[in-house]
Sequence to fold (330 residues):
Amino acid sequence: MRAIIAVPATLLLIIRAHRRKSLTPVGILAAAITATIHALHPSPLPFTLLVTFFLLGTTATKVKHEVKATLTLSSSGSSGGEGPRTSVQVFANSLAASLLVLRHLWVYGLSTQDKICFGGTEATRHADLLLMGIMANYAAVTADTLSSELGILSKGKPLLITSLRAVPPGTNGGVSGAGLLAGIGGAAVIAANCCLLLDLCDGPRQGGEVMLLAKVFVLLTGLGTVGTLLDSLLGAVLQASVVDRRSGKIVEGAGGVKVLTRSGRGGSQGAAVARPAGGGSSSTGKGKEKADLHESRVINSGRDVLDNNQINLLMASIVSGLGVFAGTLL
Fold:
């Protein structure tokens, strides 16, 4: 992608993220590094998809933020709602795509003079597959983000994907009709962007451009939908959903990290919040208050294996791999 476009666009995104507090300071640095890597790809698609995902994700986060804050609790004990995203969250959603971009640069170099088109001969087949993996990554993470941020506003309680029982809003693995539709819509937006910006080759596929773009659109929309469902399945099985017994609300860890519990199924996390020993000073009172806070929490579903960021990275990596495979079907 041309630096004359990528550099100003990246600076504008950094300014926007700083003003709106969409990212932490280190998160902004991680986003700048990711944007730079994506901009090195000769196609404008990786950088454009990264920008589209960022804008859609941060916008969805702001939708009825005050309402969403009342539906869950923060691990600090305050109201819930998504705060500024951290560097770990940035990399969890974009690392697989960044690695595929770097793979392209390793094979084909930095030169953009001989731009590689899509859907050409076998000589450029590897580049096509890498680009499909990148596009699939953003179809999946966009679908998952919109599904989570908008699905939590559904009037009815979500259903746990593994058992179909009703669970509190914000439960890992909870699926609602509204959330699924939002996810499909997000994947379709990414797929449409891909179809608009793909530089198709002349030659063997000439005359079949419409059919090729239709296949790309269907595959990416489908992969995005698979991504959000896969994220729900992985979250329901490998991620603990902690509920506050006093309010019945899900407790969310800041930045997608694990939520501490006092004992029981929280495992080794209980040791991190043991009661302080000693006399009755003000610090002891605070320690007791903190311990009581953690003791009110219990794991409602899932196993305490991975945190939310690790789930996102695993899902994005799997769908990126599926995207590479799907490219062989075009």
Remarks:
- The chain has a mean pLDDT of 86.
